[in-house]
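User: We ran a pulldown and think these components assemble together. Before we commit to crystallization trials, I'd like a predicted model of the whole complex to look at. Sequences follow.
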Amino acid sequence: MTRYIIRRLLQTIPLLLIISVILFVLANKMGDPLASFGGRRRIRSDDRERLTRKLGLDKPILVQYAIWLVGNDWMRVDIDGDGIPDEYGTRKGVLRGDFGKSFMEKRPVLEIIRERVSNTLILMLTCEVVILIFSLLIGIYSALRQYSTLDYVFTAFSFIGYSMPIFWLALILMYIFAVNFKQWGLPYFPTIGMYDLAVGRTVGQIAWHMVLPVATISIMSVAGYSRYVRSQMLEVISQDYIRTAYAKGLPERMVIMGHALKNAALPLVTIVGMDLPLLLSGAVVTESIFAWPGMGRLFWSAAQDTDIPVLMGILVIISALVVIFQIITDITYTFLDPRIRYN
Amino acid sequence: MSLKRLAWTTLLLATIASMFLAACAPATEPPGPPKTVTMTFFEEPDTFNAAYSGMWYAMLAYNIFNPGLWLWDNNLEPSLEMAAEFPTKENGLISEDGLTITIPLKEEAKWSDGEPVTAGDFVFTYEMILDPANTVQSTWPYADYLDSVTAQDDHMLVIKFGEPFAPWATTLFTFLMPEHVLRPVFEAEGTIDDAEWNRAGDVANGAFIVREWVAASHIILEANDNYWRGRPTIDEIYILIVPDDEAQMAAIKTGDTDIGIFLSYADIPTIEALEDVDVITVLSGYNESWFFNLNTDEDAAKNGHPALQDVRVRQAIAYAVDFDAICEELLFGGTYPPGTMWEETPYNYPDVNLYAYDPVMANSLLDDAGWVDSNDDGTRDKDGVELILTYSTTAGREVREQTQVVAQQYLADVGIGIEIANNSYDTMWNSYGDGGPIATGNYDIAEWSETTDFPDPNTSIFLCSEIPSDDVPVGGNWYGICDQEMDALFQAQALEMDPDKRIEQFHDIGKIMSDNVYWLGVWHDNDVWTINKRTSNIKISGGNPFWNCFEWDVSE
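Assistant: Here's a predicted model for the assembly, 899 residues in total across the polymer chains.
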């Protein structure tokens, strides 16, 4: 197993390099990083020329990638635009932990990402917990009580929930539970932000502000996940070993939780394993609508502004996590199913 | 450990971790009962050092805590901040040749840390803008027009120009850097690119100081006790970063924000129905515009449709589209088509031809120009060339796309075909050198909202020298317009220091532009704001919206 893990980890190095090259080229083709610099006005021609040079965008894309990867503190750069290299650059490159500075915010990418990660984790971990609990409860119930009234109700709501565009669901929840509730004189949920600035950042405030965004994300996911659990459970509970377990006289709760769910959970583990690294990327639409200062919004604004260093920072970190979590998921299988062995 | 226990433990740990993360984050000290005004920004300022930003929302923020010589009030008159007097030739502060401007500074003006604001701060700001080690957003007009900025004494600033520069009042020293804070940084690091002050805003010369900036969430500003006018009436300003129009609208409805910014005309009827909220439109200098590709380059790919070279065709287009109806139907009557780019200002040519909707006149002009439907396909043609125009704007802006469809129908009625080819906003304005679709001439009609150096009328986008080419890859005259008479007027107005003469020059420019239909106004694009009625004394200006934040008040 140890050799397997080491081999998989070594394989990630060329894989991530290839991913980073592709991402870098795509990010550079997304648009003009200087297009947003003028604000509501167009950037002036002289300034465009100067900033293009200062940001290193005048160099061939492969040179830009090399600087992004290994830095430019080993080469002289032209500061004043006279064509003569003046002094050594300051970039260390991603391989030495320097993801560069945001074109827009003019500060280190990792600092920007670090500020947003905790906000996103607060939101997304809570969502993941809510999603798992409700998916399991609904999925198991629907499977055990197949074709019951509640199963039909859950099925109907699953399809509705899964079909709804998330922005629409977010706005509907916001208008019903914030705008309309206020108009009706009821206690209403906040529309935007993580907490009331007049009260401060307390656990209670964050929990209160999190209700609508969590509900938005969870409804969509519960709708999908509960269907997975239901179908897996249906398949498992018709297996011989489940009948054997019942025949042995085990209580239903133990049969379901101890035997059926354990086997039915494998596909869910795969999905959750893929979800976990993506938790860090946040929820673009939900974070934007509810003004939640997380990674999703950061990614969206960086994409809009073609802020290449920030985009690359987010994408490379997410890519690395996806690869690593895939390895972790594969290893988890061996614990859930003793028949699985890696050589 | 059993699977069940493992699962429950994981869930429990995840919940605890999420609560722990929430609790561990930096806490905000709960304030008492301060007087607070809350507003929503669609975009987050990129920095608090104005030299590093061209962003409109950043300007809104730094006007509050970091004003320069003066701000422009709601009548677009200068409201003096660090300057003690506004220079004119009459008061002798502008030299006869217009090349030297002397500006006395307020002796009582201080930074929030108690240090006096001096002419040295202005000189330092000038030096930092010009220093190539600093990645400032723009060196214009400092690098282009100024010979020197010097301190005659601590409170007397002297600016010398190489040639007269008419837009000086709206473009110079709209902000200020604290020398006592930033010079040590510059001396230590060789640049102020990474100075903490750029994001802290905690040493301020305006009515408020930045107390807290939580990225993508909010900015809290608190009253500056050292402000030269004295402590402002309210105690705090909350700026919430809300990157979604619908969310801002919900916040306006629930009262979560007092000031709503940059709303669309389509929102006006909804807002007007709200009891607690006033809606106002503010002159901002912007006009939704049509530009025609009039390039006559050797490279035919850069040129527009040949029909557009004929002024009668351009006039026919102007007559063929009912822009009043577009404003009435698509913008709910909230605005109207402007006559010139200087609508609602003294520079607007008063006798401009508004090209009121007249399809008969449009047909007549097209017939006269020789564009007739000779092959009965419904579209006019001439010498085998069909009169089909490519119409571009930014993709995704609903009202623009609706305008395209409506205009397409109007133009079809007079036999002009329209092909819509839109671009994403981040590529639309790419330079010629970067292959920008408009800059390289891949359009016949292009639409976006354009302004000048508002409130100054100056603009360089119609200068012959700005027509982009391989030699001028960053030129801004993407329309290829080179009218010698208009060009001379544009150049002359930029040097004219007599305000009355300048108005006359712009009237002449307006007449040429209108007669030749070099530019066509689709709608006058004033900014739409909402103000909650619990606030008072908020007088939004199109120049510097929050110029009077020192006297805002709220009632609970």
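The mean pLDDT of chain B is 92. That may be worth checking against your pulldown data before setting up trials.

User: Thanks, that helps.
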